[in-house]
Amino acid sequence: MRAPTGTQYPLALGPLTATVTQVAAGLRSLRHGDTDLTEPYPESATPPSGCGIVLVPWPNRVKDGAWDHDGTTRQLALTEPARSNAIHGLLRYRPYELVEHTASSVTQSAAIAPELGYPFVLDTTVRHQLTADGLTVTHTIVNQGVDAAPVAVGAHPYPKIGGVPTGELTVTVAAETHLDVDDRLNVVGESAVAGTRFDLRSGRPVADLQLDDGFADVPLVQGHEGGRAEHVIAAPDGRRIVVWGDEAFRYVQVYTSRTFATETASDVALAVEPMTAPANALNTGRGLRWLAPGESWTVSWGIRHLNFPA
Fold first, then answer.
1. Which residues of 91-110 are buried (b: 16+ CB within 10 A; e: fewer)?
2. Has residue 2 been placed in a domain?
């Protein structure tokens, strides 16, 4: 029998272990010793609520699945039919090809051929690499076509600290701007987070939040080449998880799920989704990267653990 997510690639480095899947190049588990650092799901299951998947060549939603390309309306498949949107790119259900698998890393590739609503030719690779303090994920996109291609990258991790109900964790999101949405979760404007329920800059208990919201204007923390966007999940005992992205990841989606099958049935799951562009970027152009023929683009994000026992 074959797992719904295809081949499973185990990784290990010191106390860290991870499992990466062939389908969607997904992160199925990440652990420090016996402690989960992300929400796991069984090998026999599909990724619940997009858990761990790669979001390429666009993250989040495209309103009505339609966008304008040089005066031509392109129509994407409506992969979120309940809201009549296209969502999370073209690789969510795609098996990747193995490039390299070592004890602590795996590199996979997937090609994007011209298809409904997206007439471009791309090669993509994803490398998951365990490090001394966590996991680094590196994406490279190469335009193999004859026309400039619009691209963006997102990821869908659900950080957690095993043994502590996620509702008891505090999440800090440094973003200064909230992306306002309609009842179909399509962006209709933006507003400063200051003084609103969307201000997560000083930390909020996850149990108090009900979100499926995008944020922009994430400041960069210096000390790393080019700076990093950082979002922090903290336990009462001082342990922390940092979801980070390089200087390209100036947007983030925060989603609280109360239907995710967590280890405590009454608990909430928290997705912190680093993105290089926000929802509907194919229409607005915001954060979108246009790759010239033959051009490549590489970006990285990751998960760090702090104050965990050695």
1. bbebbbeeeebeebbbbbbb
2. no
Encode pLDDT of 112-155 as tens digits.
999 989 999 999 999 999 999 999 999 999 999 999 999 999 99
**Encoding tokens for residue 90?**
């073209």
The structural domain count of the chain equals 1
Residue 1 lies in a domain: no
pTM of the model: 0.97
CA distance 226 to 173: 19
Q: Domain of 259?
A: 8-306
What would the pLDDT profile of 22-36 be if each residue is shown by its tens digit? Answer: 999 999 999 999 999
Residue 52 lies in a domain: yes
Q: Is residue 283 part of a domain?
A: yes
Q: What is the CATH number of the domain that holds 295?
A: 2.70.98.10
Q: Are 150 and 295 in contact (CB under 8 A)?
A: no
Residues forming a β-bridge with 112: 122
Phi then psi for 69, rounded to 5 degrees?
A: -130, 100
